[in-house]
Amino acid sequence: MKKIIHRCLALFSPHGLLAILVAACGYLFLHPVLMRTVDVLPQMHSFSTWKEALSVLGLLDIPQFVLGLGLILMAFGLLLRARTAWVFSLLLLLVTSAFNFLSPQGNPALSLGALALMLLLIGFWRQFDRASLAAGGLFALVSFVSLLLYAVMGALYLGEEFAPAIMDMPTAFYFAIVGMSTVGFGDIVPVTSTARLFTVSVIVMGITVFATSISAIIGPVIGGNLKRIVTGRISHVMRKNHFIIAGASPLALSVYHGLKARGEAVTVIVPPHIAHEYPPDTDLISGDPSNADELVKAGAAKAKYILALRDDDAENAFIVLAAKDVAGAGCKTISVVNASKNLQKIKRVQPDMVFSLQTLGSELLVRTLNGEPIDNKLITALFFGDITESKESE
């Protein structure tokens, strides 16, 4: 339920509103083509050739359909805040504006709207800073479908200018795939200058579309891995006099924000299967914090404190044990105790500091209700779990 609410609220963010506007622009551009297609469909049986049908429908309807559909698909990429979708949306809006302005049946208001939307996208360019595999897939899909429609419809319209002539949809589809893939079997040959230029355009655009589509899909994958490698190496070198937080519990998140607010350097270790709410810019390592290798990667040898703040007391004990093997001389270990019954067990692994939220909260509440004094010495004793010692000192 929370995810659904979060997604609904995202629609009212700048990138969400821009995505809605881009989709609306695509629909307005696509709507006249859909209406003309509905009007022509009942007459399709009366045409003897595809050229007659395309002439009635209008060759310009094909690119208009592709542009409108492309804008609608790119709106989904904009919702993901993908940079690829942002760039491709700008290009589609520019072509849409020019096409609509030059077309005899175009709407100048829609051209101006597309240009205004381009300016809004440029103004909010910082919103679209993610390399998304989904957006790359949309880019590849739109590019491939657009080129396929162009090749099939063009082949049907110029069918008589090929040897043998292209007179049906399966043959046009076959020629389009062969031309786009640059295979060129030679069984269908263009015999006029117009047909040859059309074939060359299909080949050139096929090479371009396949190359850019592959880069759009593979780029985010390679880029993300490279970024993680480079970021990990740089962080490993720069980690010094910092805090290491193991876990993603609410306490761990609160401690993280508190330390960052005071200007401290913090490295977080979270197991891969654990969901967390740390900010995107967190120096975060995905791994098992009870593994000595992960602590070494987090810079345990040069850390000031290692905090075991997981929800599982057994895991916290293992983290303290692993930390003692790899931590530097000046590094201190701190462990939280989630269940007060495990306090003595945690103490056996000898962390430098251990505290139980249950014990601390209950003791402070009881003393407040009874009107007993609370001083710094008491707070320190409670943090170290020495409740009996604090009582004896009174």
From TrEMBL:
Membrane topology per record: Multi-pass membrane protein
Transmembrane spans: 12-34, 54-78, 85-102, 108-125, 137-159, 171-190, 197-222
Keyword Ion transport: yes
Key words, A-Z: Ion channel, Ion transport, Membrane, Transmembrane, Transmembrane helix, Transport
Domain RCK N-terminal: start-end pairs: 240-355
GO biological process, one term: monoatomic ion transmembrane transport
Intracellular or extracellular location(s): Cell membrane
SUPFAM superfamilies the UniProt entry points to: NAD(P)-binding Rossmann-fold domains (SSF51735), Voltage-gated potassium channels (SSF81324)
A family per Pfam: Ion_trans_2
Name of the featured protein: Voltage-gated potassium channel protein
Lineage: Bacteria, Pseudomonadati, Pseudomonadota, Gammaproteobacteria, Enterobacterales
